[in-house]
TrEMBL record:
SMART domains: HTH_LUXR (SM00421). One of its GO terms (biological process) is regulation of DNA-templated transcription. This is Helix-turn-helix transcriptional regulator. Residues 4-120 form the Response regulatory domain. GO terms for molecular function: DNA binding. It comes from the Bacteria. PROSITE patterns: HTH_LUXR_2, RESPONSE_REGULATORY. PANTHER family: DNA-BINDING TRANSCRIPTIONAL ACTIVATOR DEVR_DOSR. Residues 149-214 form the HTH luxR-type domain.
Length: 234
């Protein structure tokens, strides 16, 4: 039997994609709402079994206030936080607010579904690797906080950064090739390399990951300093 779910995230593309994937797996998704500010009221009104609540900044003070409100008004609702690689502070804040678990935004749909089932059963839903990483960071703190967006950006060449920006803008292979002045086959190769480097399986996942980690916000300086294309610029 499917789970009655809600998906709430600031990035509508990610919310709708996740909701669609979960519907295909037999779950009843009540809503896929973009504005996180109204998340608590929406969840309290609809009263799902499990709510997936997205956040880009899990360590930011007050970011989990909606979770607190949901658990106060609807304690039976299990809230799963969906976010980037968290700091120990982020994980602690999520659970302190009453969340039932934490799922990385780049987790496969099977992993998300496992977390949903655990949360509905009243179990803590967090990957062992996340806990291990959190404890490692607490025991051996890094001199600078990890910036996933910057780390991912450093993996890409300036041209691949432009390809990613165009993918996020919804351009298909033909438009990417025309905009960059390259052959469609070359554009297709660039796209595949970007997907491989980011560790995602589709353009949609790449766009969602780039938006979630702030990678797109940092892409401008890289494209200006590098040599993003030989063709016409946008």
């Amino acid at each position: 039997m499917g789970v009655r779910l809600m998906v709430v995230d600031d990035h509508r593309l990610l919310a709708e994609a996740l909701a669609s994937a979960l519907k295909l797996r037999g779950h009843r998704v009540l809503a896929a709402a973009a504005p996180a500010a109204g998340a608590a009221e929406l969840v309290i009104t609809r009263a799902p079994e499990v709510c997936l609540l997205g956040t880009a900044t899990p360590a930011e003070p007050g970011i989990f206030d909606p979770v607190i409100k949901i658990k106060r008004e609807r304690p039976q609702v299990a809230v799963l936080v969906l976010g980037p690689v968290p700091s120990p502070r982020g994980i602690a804040a999520a659970f302190a607010s009453g969340a039932s678990g934490y799922v990385r935004h780049d987790e496969r749909i099977e992993g998300v579904e496992r977390a949903i089932m655990k949360a509905r059963a009243g179990e803590a839903a967090v990957a062992p690797a996340l806990l291990q990483g959190a404890f490692s960071e607490l025991l051996n703190p890094a001199s600078q906080p990890d910036d996933e967006g910057q780390r991912l950006l450093q993996m890409l060449t300036p041209r691949e950064v432009e390809v990613l920006v165009r993918v996020a803008d919804g351009e298909d292979t033909r438009l990417i090739a025309a905009g960059m002045g390259i052959a469609p086959s070359t554009a297709r190769t660039h796209v595949q390399r970007v997907l491989m480097k980011l560790g995602v399986g589709s353009r949609l996942e790449a766009a969602a990951l780039a938006a979630r980690t702030g990678l797109l916000d940092r892409a401008g300086p890289v494209m200006r300093d590098g040599t993003p294309s030989e063709g016409p610029q946008r």
